[in-house]
Specification:
Length: 269
């Protein structure tokens, strides 16, 4: 479409057509009935071209229309683009939104974890997350997963939502394009059933990361900072540690993922 095809001027913050954008911080907490909010130019570009998520509508500041024209042209036909003055946008969302770019989206489908894993090829790298409750960390994990070519991300049922607004923003849109699914029940059993060598990161791991040569099909499990991975997972997966200076034994989980994924990709057989 051309930028003007579905451009709709908004001059009233109470316009019912943009009700889903109202007070987005508060609505982050209560949910949006299957919708999510994407924020910023890079994330909008990801959403516009994603095969896993689809845009529902866009709300932008009038001053951004010309600069965003190349992205708006890639939106599917019929997607409404609401344009408002900065003061109106700020009143709608409930705080000064300097980027001036928001969009509503939804996942096209919610894949089954077993089906996602069974569809992987003979060479596969899977990032598995257990107990990740911090949205900044979740976004960083997805960003690293995309950067290092992870084939799928598996979450346990205690993880936070990768499509929470802040997680999407920190991921730079990676959570909109990476295949991911939530696995219920026994993570290690499900990964082994899919034919994946299962690695568990822990300061107590028996194998130094530098010495690890991964198999062609590998799953690496990361846990929350502080509690780490449950003992049941650590006892059944191959434990891997990142050697550190004396007196220090932990890294931010997103930082850990970057180090581990880089090593696994560079040492792949």
């Amino acid at each position: 479409m051309t930028p003007d095809d579905n451009l709709i001027a908004i001059d009233d913050p109470d316009d019912p057509r943009i009700a889903d954008y109202r007070d987005i911080r508060e609505r982050d907490l209560v949910g949006r009935q299957g919708l999510f909010v994407a924020e910023g130019e890079v994330v909008l570009r990801m959403l516009a071209t994603s095969t896993r998520c689809e845009p529902v509508s866009v709300l932008i500041a009038e001053k951004r229309i010309e600069a965003l024209s190349p992205i708006l042209r890639t939106l599917p036909a019929g997607i409404p683009v609401y344009a408002a003055g900065q003061a109106v946008m700020d009143a709608v969302v409930g705080f000064p939104i300097h980027r001036g770019i928001l969009a509503l989206g939804r996942r096209r489908s919610v894949p089954d974890a077993d089906a996602l894993l069974s569809g992987l090829g003979e060479r596969a790298l899977v990032l598995v997350l257990s107990g990740i409750a911090n949205h900044d960390n979740m976004g960083g994990l997805f960003r690293n997963a995309a950067a290092f070519g992870v084939d799928a991300v598996i979450l346990d049922e205690t993880c936070c939502d990768p499509l929470y607004r802040k997680a999407i923003r920190v991921s730079v849109g990676a959570s909109l394009i990476l295949p991911y699914a939530t696995m219920s029940g026994d993570l290690v059993a499900g990964l082994e059933l899919a034919g994946l060598e299962t690695l568990a990161l822990s300061p107590q791991g028996e194998t130094d990361l530098s010495a690890l040569v991964p198999s062609p099909r590998t799953a690496v499990i990361l846990g929350a900072e502080g509690p780490g991975l449950p003992a049941d997972i650590l006892s059944r997966a191959r434990g891997v540690r990142i050697p550190m200076a004396t007196g220090f034994d932990s890294l931010n989980v997103a930082t850990t993922s970057g180090i581990v994924l880089h090593h696994l990709v560079s040492r792949r057989v």
